Amino acid sequence: MQLKGRTKLNTRDLAYFHDLVELKNYTEVANKFSVSQPTITVAIKRLENEFGAQLIKRDYIHNRLVVTRAGVLLFQRAQQILESLDLAYSEVQNADSSMIRFGLPPIIGTMWFPLVASELLHKGLLAHIQSIEAGSDQLLEKLRQGKIDVALLGSIRPLQEKKLDTFLLAVHPFKAIVSQKHPLVEKRHISFVELKGERFVTFTNNFVHPQALASYSKYAGFRPQIAFSTPTLSLIKELVNANLGVSLLVDDAIKPQDHLCSLTLDDPLPEKFNMSLVVRKSFLPNKTQQEFISVLFKLKNLIETKAY
Description:
By secondary structure, the chain is α/β, with parallel strands linked by helices. The protein has eleven helices and 13 strands.
Protein backbone atom coordinates (compact mmCIF):
# COMPACT_ATOMS: atom_id res chain seq x y z
CA MET A 1 0.00 0.00 0.00
CA GLN A 2 1.42 3.39 -1.00
CA LEU A 3 0.90 6.25 1.44
CA LYS A 4 -0.03 9.61 -0.03
CA GLY A 5 1.45 12.80 1.37
CA ARG A 6 3.74 12.95 4.39
CA THR A 7 4.54 10.00 6.63
CA LYS A 8 5.91 11.68 9.77
CA LEU A 9 2.73 11.34 11.80
CA ASN A 10 3.39 10.67 15.48
CA THR A 11 0.72 8.59 17.22
CA ARG A 12 1.62 10.21 20.55
CA ASP A 13 0.73 13.59 19.00
CA LEU A 14 -2.64 12.12 18.03
CA ALA A 15 -3.18 10.94 21.60
CA TYR A 16 -2.39 14.42 22.95
CA PHE A 17 -4.73 16.00 20.41
CA HIS A 18 -7.52 13.48 21.09
CA ASP A 19 -7.50 14.20 24.82
CA LEU A 20 -7.18 17.96 24.30
CA VAL A 21 -10.39 17.91 22.25
CA GLU A 22 -12.12 16.01 25.07
CA LEU A 23 -10.70 17.95 28.02
CA LYS A 24 -10.34 21.41 26.41
CA ASN A 25 -7.42 22.13 28.73
CA TYR A 26 -3.68 21.98 27.97
CA THR A 27 -2.69 21.62 31.62
CA GLU A 28 -5.00 18.68 32.25
CA VAL A 29 -3.70 16.86 29.17
CA ALA A 30 -0.08 17.52 30.17
CA ASN A 31 -0.75 16.17 33.67
CA LYS A 32 -2.49 13.10 32.29
CA PHE A 33 0.53 12.16 30.16
CA SER A 34 3.11 13.41 32.71
CA VAL A 35 4.68 15.86 30.25
CA SER A 36 5.08 19.63 30.19
CA GLN A 37 2.41 21.91 28.78
CA PRO A 38 4.76 23.17 26.00
CA THR A 39 5.07 19.52 24.87
CA ILE A 40 1.31 19.47 24.17
CA THR A 41 1.47 22.86 22.45
CA VAL A 42 4.32 21.75 20.17
CA ALA A 43 2.52 18.48 19.36
CA ILE A 44 -0.64 20.34 18.25
CA LYS A 45 1.43 22.73 16.14
CA ARG A 46 3.20 19.74 14.58
CA LEU A 47 -0.15 18.18 13.62
CA GLU A 48 -1.38 21.48 12.16
CA ASN A 49 1.77 21.70 10.04
CA GLU A 50 1.36 18.07 9.00
CA PHE A 51 -2.23 18.52 7.83
CA GLY A 52 -1.96 22.14 6.72
CA ALA A 53 -4.99 23.21 8.74
CA GLN A 54 -5.77 24.88 12.04
CA LEU A 55 -7.17 22.34 14.48
CA ILE A 56 -7.59 24.27 17.72
CA LYS A 57 -8.48 27.95 18.22
CA ARG A 58 -8.46 29.90 21.45
CA ASP A 59 -11.55 31.98 22.19
CA TYR A 60 -10.01 34.75 24.31
CA ILE A 61 -13.36 36.42 24.98
CA HIS A 62 -14.82 33.34 26.69
CA ASN A 63 -11.42 31.94 27.72
CA ARG A 64 -11.94 28.54 26.10
CA LEU A 65 -10.58 26.31 23.36
CA VAL A 66 -12.59 25.84 20.17
CA VAL A 67 -12.14 22.84 17.89
CA THR A 68 -12.30 23.76 14.19
CA ARG A 69 -14.15 21.68 11.61
CA ALA A 70 -10.80 20.25 10.49
CA GLY A 71 -10.10 19.44 14.14
CA VAL A 72 -13.40 17.58 14.53
CA LEU A 73 -12.64 15.51 11.43
CA LEU A 74 -9.16 14.64 12.68
CA PHE A 75 -10.52 13.84 16.14
CA GLN A 76 -12.90 11.26 14.66
CA ARG A 77 -10.08 9.62 12.69
CA ALA A 78 -7.67 9.84 15.61
CA GLN A 79 -10.16 7.97 17.79
CA GLN A 80 -10.32 5.15 15.25
CA ILE A 81 -6.53 5.05 14.84
CA LEU A 82 -5.84 4.99 18.58
CA GLU A 83 -8.46 2.29 19.20
CA SER A 84 -6.98 0.17 16.39
CA LEU A 85 -3.48 0.71 17.77
CA ASP A 86 -4.55 -0.33 21.29
CA LEU A 87 -6.18 -3.43 19.83
CA ALA A 88 -3.02 -4.25 17.84
CA TYR A 89 -0.84 -3.96 20.96
CA SER A 90 -3.20 -6.23 22.90
CA GLU A 91 -3.36 -8.86 20.16
CA VAL A 92 0.38 -8.91 19.46
CA GLN A 93 1.28 -9.09 23.15
CA ASN A 94 -1.05 -12.10 23.56
CA ALA A 95 -0.14 -13.79 20.25
CA ASP A 96 2.00 -16.52 21.87
CA SER A 97 -0.20 -17.02 24.92
CA SER A 98 -2.00 -20.32 25.43
CA MET A 99 -4.47 -18.59 27.74
CA ILE A 100 -8.07 -18.10 26.60
CA ARG A 101 -9.37 -14.67 27.61
CA PHE A 102 -13.01 -15.57 28.05
CA GLY A 103 -15.96 -13.35 28.98
CA LEU A 104 -18.76 -15.03 30.90
CA PRO A 105 -21.78 -13.25 32.40
CA PRO A 106 -22.74 -14.75 35.79
CA ILE A 107 -26.24 -15.79 34.70
CA ILE A 108 -24.92 -17.69 31.65
CA GLY A 109 -22.18 -19.14 33.81
CA THR A 110 -24.79 -20.43 36.22
CA MET A 111 -27.32 -21.76 33.72
CA TRP A 112 -25.49 -23.04 30.65
CA PHE A 113 -21.69 -23.06 30.93
CA PRO A 114 -21.78 -26.13 33.24
CA LEU A 115 -23.17 -28.14 30.29
CA VAL A 116 -19.71 -28.06 28.66
CA ALA A 117 -17.53 -27.73 31.76
CA SER A 118 -16.92 -31.48 32.12
CA GLU A 119 -15.71 -31.80 28.52
CA LEU A 120 -13.46 -28.76 28.94
CA LEU A 121 -12.02 -30.34 32.08
CA HIS A 122 -11.53 -33.72 30.36
CA LYS A 123 -9.65 -32.05 27.47
CA GLY A 124 -7.48 -30.02 29.83
CA LEU A 125 -8.91 -26.73 28.59
CA LEU A 126 -10.30 -25.35 31.85
CA ALA A 127 -6.76 -24.67 33.07
CA HIS A 128 -6.19 -22.39 30.07
CA ILE A 129 -9.22 -20.17 30.69
CA GLN A 130 -8.72 -16.67 32.04
CA SER A 131 -12.34 -15.95 32.91
CA ILE A 132 -13.68 -12.40 33.15
CA GLU A 133 -17.15 -12.22 34.71
CA ALA A 134 -19.31 -9.15 34.11
CA GLY A 135 -22.56 -8.09 32.49
CA SER A 136 -22.98 -8.69 28.76
CA ASP A 137 -22.72 -4.99 27.89
CA GLN A 138 -19.39 -4.68 29.70
CA LEU A 139 -18.03 -7.83 28.09
CA LEU A 140 -19.11 -6.66 24.64
CA GLU A 141 -17.05 -3.50 25.12
CA LYS A 142 -14.07 -5.55 26.32
CA LEU A 143 -14.32 -7.64 23.14
CA ARG A 144 -14.26 -4.52 21.00
CA GLN A 145 -11.21 -3.25 22.89
CA GLY A 146 -9.33 -6.54 22.59
CA LYS A 147 -9.28 -7.16 26.36
CA ILE A 148 -10.98 -10.53 25.83
CA ASP A 149 -11.13 -12.72 22.73
CA VAL A 150 -14.18 -14.96 23.19
CA ALA A 151 -17.40 -14.51 25.15
CA LEU A 152 -20.84 -15.95 25.75
CA LEU A 153 -23.15 -12.95 25.73
CA GLY A 154 -26.82 -12.27 26.33
CA SER A 155 -28.85 -9.72 24.33
CA ILE A 156 -32.53 -8.90 23.91
CA ARG A 157 -32.12 -8.98 20.11
CA PRO A 158 -29.68 -11.08 18.02
CA LEU A 159 -26.25 -9.42 18.09
CA GLN A 160 -24.90 -7.86 14.91
CA GLU A 161 -21.43 -6.32 15.13
CA LYS A 162 -19.24 -5.43 12.16
CA LYS A 163 -15.98 -6.37 13.90
CA LEU A 164 -17.31 -9.45 15.69
CA ASP A 165 -18.38 -12.92 14.61
CA THR A 166 -21.59 -13.83 16.43
CA PHE A 167 -23.20 -17.27 16.58
CA LEU A 168 -26.66 -17.58 18.12
CA LEU A 169 -26.77 -20.59 20.46
CA ALA A 170 -30.07 -20.24 22.30
CA VAL A 171 -33.20 -18.09 22.48
CA HIS A 172 -35.29 -18.10 25.65
CA PRO A 173 -38.36 -16.02 26.56
CA PHE A 174 -38.33 -13.80 29.61
CA LYS A 175 -40.73 -14.76 32.38
CA ALA A 176 -42.08 -12.99 35.42
CA ILE A 177 -40.67 -14.56 38.58
CA VAL A 178 -42.71 -14.35 41.78
CA SER A 179 -42.68 -16.02 45.17
CA GLN A 180 -44.99 -18.93 45.86
CA LYS A 181 -46.91 -16.64 48.22
CA HIS A 182 -47.72 -14.13 45.47
CA PRO A 183 -51.41 -13.73 44.48
CA LEU A 184 -50.58 -14.26 40.78
CA VAL A 185 -49.13 -17.75 41.35
CA GLU A 186 -52.33 -19.51 40.30
CA LYS A 187 -52.55 -17.76 36.94
CA ARG A 188 -49.39 -19.15 35.28
CA HIS A 189 -50.01 -16.86 32.26
CA ILE A 190 -50.23 -13.08 32.68
CA SER A 191 -49.92 -9.83 30.77
CA PHE A 192 -47.13 -7.59 31.97
CA VAL A 193 -49.59 -4.82 32.84
CA GLU A 194 -50.78 -7.03 35.71
CA LEU A 195 -47.44 -6.29 37.41
CA LYS A 196 -48.18 -2.57 37.56
CA GLY A 197 -47.65 -1.40 41.13
CA GLU A 198 -45.24 -4.24 41.94
CA ARG A 199 -41.71 -3.67 43.22
CA PHE A 200 -39.05 -5.12 40.89
CA VAL A 201 -35.76 -6.76 41.81
CA THR A 202 -33.44 -6.77 38.82
CA PHE A 203 -29.89 -6.92 37.58
CA THR A 204 -27.73 -3.81 37.35
CA ASN A 205 -27.71 -1.86 34.09
CA ASN A 206 -24.70 -3.60 32.52
CA PHE A 207 -26.88 -6.72 32.14
CA VAL A 208 -29.54 -7.20 29.45
CA HIS A 209 -32.44 -7.76 31.88
CA PRO A 210 -33.06 -4.06 32.66
CA GLN A 211 -33.38 -3.47 28.88
CA ALA A 212 -36.06 -6.16 28.67
CA LEU A 213 -37.79 -4.76 31.76
CA ALA A 214 -37.86 -1.31 30.16
CA SER A 215 -39.37 -2.70 26.93
CA TYR A 216 -42.08 -4.68 28.71
CA SER A 217 -42.93 -1.74 30.98
CA LYS A 218 -43.15 0.66 28.06
CA TYR A 219 -45.46 -1.73 26.23
CA ALA A 220 -47.63 -2.08 29.34
CA GLY A 221 -47.70 1.70 29.83
CA PHE A 222 -46.10 2.09 33.24
CA ARG A 223 -42.75 2.90 34.78
CA PRO A 224 -41.41 0.01 36.90
CA GLN A 225 -40.65 0.65 40.56
CA ILE A 226 -37.13 -0.70 41.11
CA ALA A 227 -36.77 -1.90 44.68
CA PHE A 228 -33.24 -3.24 44.30
CA SER A 229 -30.58 -3.81 41.63
CA THR A 230 -27.73 -6.29 41.94
CA PRO A 231 -25.28 -8.22 39.74
CA THR A 232 -25.97 -11.38 41.75
CA LEU A 233 -28.58 -13.88 40.56
CA SER A 234 -28.78 -15.71 43.88
CA LEU A 235 -29.62 -12.47 45.72
CA ILE A 236 -32.39 -11.67 43.23
CA LYS A 237 -33.94 -15.08 43.84
CA GLU A 238 -33.66 -14.72 47.62
CA LEU A 239 -35.39 -11.34 47.60
CA VAL A 240 -38.17 -12.59 45.34
CA ASN A 241 -38.55 -15.69 47.50
CA ALA A 242 -38.99 -13.40 50.53
CA ASN A 243 -41.82 -11.72 48.58
CA LEU A 244 -39.97 -8.39 48.58
CA GLY A 245 -40.45 -7.94 44.84
CA VAL A 246 -40.87 -9.66 41.49
CA SER A 247 -38.29 -10.12 38.76
CA LEU A 248 -37.86 -10.71 35.03
CA LEU A 249 -35.65 -13.72 34.28
CA VAL A 250 -35.37 -16.66 31.90
CA ASP A 251 -37.00 -19.90 33.00
CA ASP A 252 -33.70 -21.82 33.12
CA ALA A 253 -32.50 -19.52 35.91
CA ILE A 254 -35.08 -21.00 38.29
CA LYS A 255 -34.39 -24.35 39.95
CA PRO A 256 -36.88 -26.47 41.99
CA GLN A 257 -34.95 -25.74 45.19
CA ASP A 258 -35.51 -21.98 44.68
CA HIS A 259 -39.23 -22.38 45.55
CA LEU A 260 -40.18 -19.70 43.03
CA CYS A 261 -42.84 -19.53 40.35
CA SER A 262 -42.29 -18.60 36.68
CA LEU A 263 -45.21 -16.88 34.97
CA THR A 264 -45.45 -16.91 31.17
CA LEU A 265 -45.84 -13.44 29.68
CA ASP A 266 -48.45 -13.28 26.90
CA ASP A 267 -47.38 -9.86 25.62
CA PRO A 268 -46.36 -10.03 21.91
CA LEU A 269 -42.91 -8.46 22.32
CA PRO A 270 -39.85 -9.51 20.26
CA GLU A 271 -37.50 -9.18 23.24
CA LYS A 272 -36.00 -12.54 24.16
CA PHE A 273 -32.86 -13.66 25.99
CA ASN A 274 -30.52 -14.41 23.07
CA MET A 275 -27.36 -16.23 24.09
CA SER A 276 -24.54 -15.95 21.54
CA LEU A 277 -20.97 -17.13 21.17
CA VAL A 278 -19.01 -14.04 20.16
CA VAL A 279 -15.46 -13.95 18.79
CA ARG A 280 -13.55 -10.89 17.60
CA LYS A 281 -13.01 -11.13 13.83
CA SER A 282 -9.33 -10.19 14.12
CA PHE A 283 -8.67 -12.93 16.70
CA LEU A 284 -6.43 -15.71 15.32
CA PRO A 285 -6.89 -18.65 17.71
CA ASN A 286 -4.14 -21.20 18.24
CA LYS A 287 -4.96 -24.92 18.47
CA THR A 288 -5.92 -24.79 22.16
CA GLN A 289 -8.09 -21.71 21.74
CA GLN A 290 -9.80 -23.14 18.64
CA GLU A 291 -10.59 -26.38 20.49
CA PHE A 292 -12.15 -24.33 23.30
CA ILE A 293 -14.34 -22.44 20.81
CA SER A 294 -15.38 -25.73 19.18
CA VAL A 295 -16.56 -27.08 22.54
CA LEU A 296 -18.60 -23.91 23.18
CA PHE A 297 -20.39 -24.46 19.86
CA LYS A 298 -21.80 -27.69 21.31
CA LEU A 299 -23.87 -25.63 23.74
CA LYS A 300 -26.49 -25.12 21.03
CA ASN A 301 -27.39 -28.81 20.81
CA LEU A 302 -26.95 -29.39 24.54
CA ILE A 303 -29.37 -26.60 25.44
CA GLU A 304 -31.92 -27.78 22.85
CA THR A 305 -31.66 -31.36 24.19
CA LYS A 306 -32.08 -30.10 27.76
CA ALA A 307 -35.21 -28.19 26.75
CA TYR A 308 -36.89 -31.41 25.73
